[in-house]
Amino acid sequence: MEQKRLRTIKRIGTISQLVCLITSVGIVLSLTFVSLFVVASDSMEPTLGKGDIVLMLTTVQPENLTEGEIAGYKSGTGMTVIHRTVTPYLDTESDRVAWRMQGDANEGMDVEILTRDNCVGKYLCHIPAAKIPTFKMAVGLFCGVALVIVVVGGMLRVYGDTKLSDKATKV
To answer: Taking the mean position of all CA atoms in its chain, how far away is CA 167?
Structure first.
């Protein structure tokens, strides 16, 4: 009976560590395909405000966008511009779809065009600037809980191994 309980403890430790590992791999993979940007102006008000954090899916190309979607591109000055797609445009150099862009609060379209070469991605979601302290606390809490699970899981595995080997030695 004691050995069964010890094996269960060891399994719980192993499972908790595997859950943390799988979650960590998921986070790393999502960050591979997602980039974070901070909104630097009010050109997308009221949709996006200055200081908001925007998550962009980086694997999307201009030909996969539709009118009215929010996307980002690198401007000639190197700044990332996050605006809404307005008008499709055929890039004659590459013979591919490009987009005329415009900020929601801007009266006119951007001078630059979103192309395959300068596209940084498509809008996924954003964290309003007012919620960023809460977001940072949540990330810190998640990391802390994950660390505790890994440590406790490791301790349970070591405890289970030690007690099982003690039992084997006594027999």
So the answer is: 47
Residue ranges of the alpha helices (H) in the chain? 2-33, 132-170
* 6-40: pLDDT as tens digits: 677 667 777 777 776 677 766 666 667 888 888 98
Name the residue among 39, 42, 40, 69 with its Cα closest to residue 54. Answer: 39
β-pair partners for 72: 82, 121
Task: Give Cβ neighbours of residue 1 (< 8 Å, ≥ 6 apart).
Answer: none
Distance CA 171, CA 166 (A): 9
Higher local confidence (pLDDT), 86 or 52? 86
What's the order of all strands across the beta sheet hosting 80-91? 34-38, 53-57, 119-127, 70-74, 80-91, 96-102, 113-114
pLDDT digits (tens, 9 = 90+) for 75-127: 999 999 999 999 998 878 778 899 999 999 999 999 999 999 999 999 998 88
Nearest to 4 by CA among 152, 163, 158, 171: 163
Computed on alpha carbons and rounded to an integer, the radius of gyration of the chain in Å comes to 25
Q: Return d(Cα 56, Cα 70) in angstroms, integer.
A: 9
